[in-house]
Write a structure and sequence with these properties.
Elements: E1 3-7, H1 16-26, E2 30-34, H2 40-50, E3 61-64, H3 72-81, E4 84-88, H4 95-105, E5 108-114, H5 120-137, E6 143-151, H6 157-163, E7 170-171, E8 176-177, H7 181-187, H8 192-198, H9 202-226
Parallel strand pairs: 1-4, 1-5, 2-3, 2-4, 5-6, 6-7, 6-8
Helix pairs in contact: 1-9, 4-5, 8-9
The structure holds adenosine-5'-triphosphate and magnesium ion (MG).
């Protein structure tokens, strides 16, 4: 049975969709549940399919789900077919019930938090309702973890991580670093590894390789923390 990993943060623009796309690609049998009505990952996938970009049977799939369509039975069925099912949750006003559904069914909940978010009180106030819900409702005994995002590529990860310690939520020993190519590759309808192969500028390809090595570190953390305790 595969693991269900949710990326949640009601704060919009915290890197949920970008990180979902990067992570799903590095596992051999994985898929994305796009749970956001804006459907950016689903549109990305549709565009690829229309252009016959996904010839490879093993390529990850992206499916779009509304709130009523994503039941525990459906998620169980998806996790029978995949090693990892990533749920990309919506931000802002759409977050409520969908985030709650993801929290209930997940083996691991990743909350991307801005690496330069010094205002820890505001961060916790923002997340408090979500965290209370999560503690009470998760039926899989899954972990809930912070992952620092938008971190300066030169920053020392241990220092960044230490700022998020002691808040009552475990912190992943990793960080999703800021790289311009992470904005560019989805806009081109590519995955990060496709961008590494085909990016026009050598400078971009190098940056994309660095981003991939960062994603692989986070993927390793995902494997460790989604194991049944
Ligand atoms: N590591 C990164 N480096 C550079 N740009 C990034 C990175 N992560 C995300 N971005 C950019 O930041 C913006 C917000 O990212 P993204 O859409 O992934 O956030 P989100 O949490 O899914 O937002 P929403 O809540 O609206 O769904 C996008 O323009 C994206 O390209
Ligand atoms: Mg998103």
């Amino acid at each position: 049975m595969g693991k269900v990993i949710s990326l949640v943060n009601p704060k919009g623009g915290s890197g949920k969709s970008t990180l979902t796309l990067c992570l799903a690609e590095v596992f051999e049998k994985s898929m994305i549940v796009d749970f956001d009505p804006q459907a950016c990952l689903w549109s990305w996938y549709q565009e690829r399919t229309l252009n016959n970009r996904d010839q490879d049977d093993h390529f990850m799939e992206v499916e779009f789900y509304g709130l009523e369509e994503l039941s525990i039975e459906r998620l169980d069925a998806l996790s029978q077919l995949n090693d990892f099912v990533f749920i990309d949750c919506p931000g802002e006003s759409e977050a409520g019930e969908k985030t709650r559904t993801a929290l209930v069914y997940s083996d691991l909940v990743i909350i991307p938090v801005h690496g330069s978010d010094f205002d820890i009180t505001s961060l916790l106030n923002h997340l408090a309702p979500l965290l209370e819900d999560a503690a009470a409702s998760n039926i899989k005994g899954g972990k809930i973890m912070f992952l620092p995002v938008f971190v300066n590529p030169l920053a020392r990860i241990d220092r960044v991580v230490s700022r998020f310690e002691g808040l009552g939520i475990e912190v992943m020993q990793g960080a999703f670093k800021t790289r311009q190519v992470l904005k560019v590759f989805p806009e081109q309808g590519r995955t990060l590894s496709e961008f590494i192969e085909s990016g026009k500028l050598a400078r971009d390809r190098i940056q994309a390789r660095e981003a991939m090595s960062n994603v692989l570190q986070i993927a390793q953390q995902v494997m460790i923390h989604s194991r049944r305790q």
